[in-house]
Amino acid sequence: MQHPLRPFGWLDVIRLGLVQACLGAMVVVATSTLNRIMVVELALPALLPGLLVAFHYLVQMIRPRLGFGADRGRRCTPWMMTGMVCLALGGNVATWATIEMAHDRTLGIAVCALGFALIGVGVSACGTSLLALMAKRVPQAHRAPAATTVWVMMIMGFAITAFNVGQMIDPYSPERLMQVTLGLGALICVITALAVWGLEPAQAQAAVGASASDAQPVQEAPMNRHAFGEALRSVWQEPQAKCFTVFVFLSMLAYSTQDLVLEPFAGAIFGLSPGQSTKLSGVHHSGVLVGMLLVAMAGSRWVAGRMGSTQTWMVGGCVLSALAMAGLSLAGWQAPGWPLKLNVVVLGVANGAFSIAAIATMMRLANASGAQSQGIRMGLWGAAQAMAFGLGNLLGTLLSDLAHWVLTAPAWSYATVFLFEAVMFLLAARLALQVGQMDAQSQAAAQPLNTGLQRIRHEHSSL
To answer: Exposed, middle or buried by CB within 10 Å (0-12, 13-18, 19+), for 156?
Structure first.
């Protein structure tokens, strides 16, 4: 007889957070440190690292397939470990290739593309499986705080790695950079191995849900070459899953489009220095952290829904993000009198709130069908997010350049981009409302069935 697996406690969540921090540690080296070296030390066009980062997002379209593999295998931790090794390998290949560009540019760029492809595969395998495992084993009541814990630890991974790598490679030399990257790759693999050790039993059952009482054994599905396509079509045909996928894409498209526009806007319109605009970006990230913590507090057992549901925070965060973007579009004509820092803080809080609420909703919807499909669902939504980030990073600068070409006034140019993002956030809020309405309809449809089952049990017990 199969027994449901125990729900994860906070120690288990922290262990997953360590894995997420390791993911962030290697990614920040690839997307930030190598970016700087290509542009400054090697004097290469900024377009090159931009295309490489976009390419690593494109590779993440394989997330649904990797999630499906985790579903069929029943265990997620082997995929997490394999993904981390692949990420470490990709980071070191990309670093070697970046150094090689100084001697053989063509070879260096070609090998660097391979390195970023490995980074994309590693992030996909590890990140998708981690989210699927959280969806299976974290209880419903703890999902928002658990998501916040894991994502805050990822941000800490970004920050700690950026600071320490910066210290260790200064003064810069190619040899020192390679040594630091090799050491970091080994470190994240060791930490991940220790973090996932014993997290899943050797023979994991499929019977893992949000709580032990809801878990049901699921028979092993036979593998065939059409199984993945059938599973993906089955998920995509569900109206709620499709609606949530589009929500993830639109909200993350709006979120990522601002990344490369906010600092140039602050410099061009408000006259901020590079240091001041970087601090403004830090203010935004601080706001994101506050928004995440607010949603975690709202989902805790001590508050017990008095601060609103996850659904409310998801919709409200998108609406508030749209209002903040509209405020930035007006700021161009009010500079320097517009309260730019306050506007950016509000934007950050709203961004953090809707993103964590969306992740908590993602974990809940991953268990909606009751079948062993958490991996492919998380993969589908992860692919939508990756597509949005890749497109958003390119679209933000493209729209800004196009608007500068068509519209002579800089204020109009930036306002066009910010209004586009505001519209995307409003569309995302509308889709988030639809997801909630579908939940209400499902619960209403299930109510008569539950009542009937209770009546049958009562009659049976009275015999």
So the answer is: middle
Tell which CATH classification among 3.40.50.720, 1.20.810.10, 3.40.50.2300, 1.20.1250.20 matches the domain 1-210.
1.20.1250.20
Label residue 392 by pLDDT band (50, 70, 90). confident
Distances (CA, A) of 77 to 133, 203, 207, 329: 8, 12, 16, 45
Taking phi first (over 0 means left), then psi (-120 to 50 degrees means alpha), and beta for anything else, what does residue 45 get? Answer: beta
Q: Please report the pLDDT score of residue 40 as a whole number.
A: 79
**What are the Cα distances from residue 82, in Å, to 151, 195, 358?**
21, 14, 27
Minimum mean pLDDT among 6-20, 63-77, 237-251, 392-406: which range?
A: 392-406
Whole-number Å distance between alpha carbons of 226 and 104: 43
Give pLDDT tens digits for 128-179. Answer: 999 888 888 888 778 888 888 898 888 888 778 877 888 888 888 999 999 9
Model's pTM, two decimal places? 0.80
Dihedral sign from CA coordinates of 286, 290, 291, 292: positive
Closest by CA position to 4, among listed 122, 108, 128, 139? 139
Q: Which two tokens stand for residue 216?
A: 């049901």
**Token pair of 283 as six digits:** 């203010």
